[in-house]
Design goal:
By secondary structure, the protein is an alpha+beta fold. It contains 17 helices and 23 strands. The strands form 6 sheets. Strands 3, 4, 17, 18, 19, 20, 21, 22 and 23 form a 9-stranded mixed beta sheet that branches. The chain is globular.
Length: 628
C-alpha cells in the first residue's frame, strides 16, 4: 500500500501489527520489523543505518536490545553522491483480505499485496461497474493474533468446511451491522451475524456458537502483518470485532527521560567495584540494618572516600539500584521487566529532585517560600517543586496487545510478535523509537504529609473498592499486577486535575500535555511525585509556557482553581455517589466532566482516579481528602 504516515505514528498508533486506512479507503496492516529499511527492491545495499540509530542506555538495558532506530523516511534524492537511504519505506499489507460488493453482496478474497481496487465479478457480468469493499468484521484474540472473520466456517457451521462456492454478505434491513447475513451458493441456510461480537469472562459467542456440533472454535494463531498465513498453536477464544474498533490494537510503548552524565561504562565500573569483598560486606550490612538508599550511599562514601571520589551520589544510587535489579533478576527472572521499570523510574526520580543545567536536561528548583500562602499553601503539601525547562524523552515500541490494553506479557513474547525472524546477533537486535523534546513541572509530595494521610482509616476504606476491583481484573484476564495504594490514586488524580486546568490557563491542546508518575510506598526508597510535561514532537508547548505556569505567582492560582473545579462536577451528585465507574469500573468520583484526559496523556488509560482523595466532596468524609 502507498500512503503517507508520520514517523512518530509508526510507534503509536500505527506501529507493527496495527491497521490504518489510506486515502482511497483501503485498510492495511503495518508489516513486521524484518521488512523495514529495505528499498523498493527489497534490499539494504544502499542503506546507512547510522542515520537512524538512537542510543538510550537505560531503555536498552531494560528491553535487552543493542540500540533503537527511527522509522525510515521516504527520500527521492540523496544528500550525497552515494545514493544512500533512497526510496526506503515501511510496507503495509492489505487486510482484511475478504471483500464484498455493497450492491449485490458477492464476496471475494484478495491477496495481501493487491494494490488496486477490484471490480465485482458478479456485477461486471451483468454490465455494471461496482468496486469491492473490505468486509467490516475481523477476528482477534487476547494473544495478539489477527485473522479474517471465518465467513465460510460461520455460514456452514463447521470448523473445516469443504465447500468452495461463492459467498454473499447481504443486509436484511436496518442500520446495524448485525442485521447482515452470510449466504453461500451451495444452498445452505443463510446465517445472521447477530451476536458475533458478544463476549464475557468465560469466552466469546463466536467461538462457542460457530460449530453446529457444540464444540468450540479457537483462534488459528495467524499473524498477517508478518507476510504469511502461517498460524501457530493458540488456545484462546476467537473474538469478532469491527475493523475500526478501539480494542483491535494497543501499542506497548516504553519511554524514558534522558539522564545526562551517565553511561554504561560508569555503571559497569561501579558494579565491578561493589563486587569487592570489603564493599560487598558494607552493602549487605546496610541491607540487614534496613538502611535507606541515601544512608547506604553515605556509608559507602565514608568508608571508600578515595575510590568513589569521581562519582556523584546520584551515580552511586543508580548503581546500587542496578545491582538490586540484577540480583532480583537472578532469583526471579519472570519479575525482571517490572523491577526494571521501577528501577528506571527511581533513577529519574533521583535526578528530577536535583538541579541540572545541561544541553538536553535543564532543571531548576523553586524556593517554596516564594509561593503566596494566602492563595495556596504549597509548602504544606509538597517537599519541593522543580521547573524542567528542557527534557528529552525516548519512546520505544516494544510490542502490542489486542482486546485488553494492559495484559502481562514477557519482553521476549512481545518482540516475537513484531519480528518474523528475530535477530540472533545481539548487535542487530533493535526496536523502533523516536525522540521528542519538551518542558514540564515536577511536583514532589511531602513524604511526611503523605504517610500521615494514608494511615487514616477513612482513606484506606475509600481505596479498598478500587483495589478489590483491580484484583478481580488481574484474576480474570491476565492483567499486569500492581498495588493500588492511596498515594497512587491521589497523585494520579492530582495530575489529571492539573492537566485539565492547564489546558484552560495556557491554551494547550488537551493531548499535548502528559503525566509521568513516580509512586512507591517502599519504606527504603519511597516515592510520591508527578511530572506534568509536554513532549508532542512539534512546537506546541516548547516555548516556555508550561514552565512559566510553575513559577511563584502563577502556580498557586492554577492549583486553587483546579481544586475548586474538582469540588463539584457538572454531573454531581451522580459522579460522586455512583461508586465504581469509568474504564474497567476502576474509578470512583471521576468522569469525563471532571477528571478524565485524552488516553495519550494518561499512563493508566484513565483508570484509578478519585476526586474524593484529593479534595473534600459533598457526602464524603473530609478526612479522606489529602488537600484539605
Amino acid at each position: 500500500m502507498r500512503y503517507p504516515i508520520r514517523r512518530a505514528q509508526l510507534i503509536s498508533p500505527f506501529g507493527t501489527g496495527a491497521m490504518s486506512i489510506s486515502k482511497n479507503g483501503t485498510s492495511a496492516v503495518c508489516s513486521g520489523l524484518d521488512h523495514w529499511f529495505k528499498d523498493r527492491h527489497g534490499k539494504m545495499d544502499f542503506t546507512d543505518l547510522s542515520q537512524y540509530k538512537i542510543q538510550e542506555w537505560r531503555l536498552e538495558r531494560m528491553l535487552e536490545v543493542s540500540h533503537f532506530r527511527l522509522p525510515p523516511d521516504f527520500r527521492t534524492r540523496s544528500s550525497d553522491d552515494n545514493n544512500m537511504n533512497m526510496f526506503l519505506s515501511v510496507p503495509f499489507l492489505r487486510f482484511p483480505k475478504w471483500h464484498y460488493c455493497p450492491f449485490c453482496g458477492q464476496m471475494q478474497e484478495l491477496e495481501y499485496h493487491r494494490r488496486s481496487n477490484e471490480l465485482c465479478q458478479g456485477c461486471e457480468q451483468k454490465g455494471y461497474k461496482n468496486y469491492l469493499v473490505q468486509a467490516p468484521f475481523i477476528a482477534i484474540c487476547e494473544k495478539g493474533h489477527l485473522q479474517d472473520f471465518p465467513w465460510r466456517e460461520w455460514v456452514h457451521r463447521q470448523k473445516n468446511p469443504s465447500c468452495t462456492q461463492t459467498l454473499y454478505l447481504v443486509s436484511t434491513g436496518g442500520g446495524a451491522l448485525t442485521s447482515m447475513q452470510v449466504k453461500c451458493e451451495c444452498g445452505i441456510e443463510p446465517r445472521m451475524l447477530h451476536g458475533v461480537t458478544s463476549a464475557d469472562e468465560e469466552g466469546t459467542e463466536l467461538s462457542r456458537s460457530l460449530s453446529g456440533d457444540g464444540s468450540e472454535f479457537f483462534c488459528q494463531g495467524k499473524r498477517p502483518w508478518l507476510g504469511n498465513d502461517e498460524g501457530e498453536e493458540c488456545s484462546c477464544h476467537l473474538r469478532a470485532s469491527l475493523r475500526s474498533a478501539s480494542n483491535v490494537y494497543f501499542a506497548q510503548v516504553r519511554s524514558a527521560i534522558f539522564i545526562p552524565g551517565n553511561s554504561n561504562k560508569q555503571i559497569s565500573a561501579l558494579l565491578s567495584f561493589f563486587e569487592k569483598s570489603q564493599v560487598l560486606s558494607i552493602i549487605n550490612l546496610a541491607k540487614r540494618a534496613n538502611l535507606s538508599l541515601d544512608e547506604t550511599v553515605m556509608e559507602l562514601k565514608e568508608q571508600f572516600l578515595l575510590e568513589l571520589n569521581g562519582y556523584s551520589d546520584s551515580d552511586i544510587r543508580r548503581a546500587l539500584l542496578a545491582r538490586d535489579s540484577r540480583d532480583t533478576g537472578q532469583e526471579a527472572e519472570d519479575e525482571l521487566p517490572n523491577d526494571m521499570e521501577a528501577i528506571l523510574r527511581q533513577e529519574e526520580y533521583e535526578v528530577l529532585n536535583g538541579e541540572i543545567n545541561q544541553e538536553e536536561l535543564k532543571i531548576k528548583p523553586v524556593d517554596l517560600e516564594l509561593f503566596e500562602r494566602n492563595i495556596f499553601d504549597v509548602s504544606r503539601y509538597f517537599s519541593n517543586i522543580h521547573l524542567i525547562e528542557k527534557l528529552k524523552e525516548t519512546r520505544v515500541l516494544t510490542g502490542f496487545n489486542r482486546v485488553f490494553n494492559d495484559q502481562q506479557n514477557d519482553i521476549e513474547d512481545m518482540k516475537s510478535m513484531i519480528w518474523r525472524n528475530q535477530p540472533t546477533d545481539f548487535n542487530d537486535d533493535w526496536l523502533p523509537a523516536y525522540v521528542v523534546y519538551g518542558e514540564g513541572i515536577f511536583f514532589n509530595f511531602s513524604e511526611e504529609a503523605v504517610r500521615e494521610w494514608e494511615q487514616r482509616e477513612q482513606v484506606k476504606g475509600r481505596v479498598q473498592p478500587l483495589s478489590e476491583r483491580y484484583r478481580h481484573l488481574v484474576a480474570n484476564r491476565r492483567t499486569r499486577e500492581k498495588k493500588i495504594s492511596p498515594r497512587f490514586v491521589m497523585a494520579h488524580t492530582f495530575a489529571h486535575l492539573l492537566i485539565n486546568q492547564l489546558v484552560f490557563e495556557c491554551g494547550y491542546s488537551s493531548s499535548s500535555l502528559r503525566e509521568r508518575l513516580y509512586v512507591s510506598d517502599n519504606e527504603a526508597n519511597p516515592m510520591c511525585g508527578v511530572l506534568i510535561y509536554t513532549a508532542a514532537g512539534d512546537s506546541d508547548g516548547t516555548m516556555g509556557g508550561l514552565v512559566r505556569m510553575g513559577r511563584p505567582g502563577y502556580l498557586e492560582a492554577v492549583i486553587l482553581k483546579a481544586f475548586i473545579n474538582a469540588g463539584w462536577c457538572s454531573t454531581d451528585p451522580v459522579c460522586t455517589e455512583i461508586g465504581l465507574q469509568g474504564p474497567d469500573s476502576c474509578n470512583l468520583a471521576a468522569c469525563h466532566s471532571c477528571s478524565l484526559v485524552p488516553e495519550t496523556a494518561c499512563e493508566e488509560f484513565n483508570r484509578f482516579l478519585d476526586r474524593g482523595l484529593v479534595v473534600p466532596l459533598h457526602g464524603v468524609d473530609p478526612l479522606t481528602a489529602f488537600f484539605n
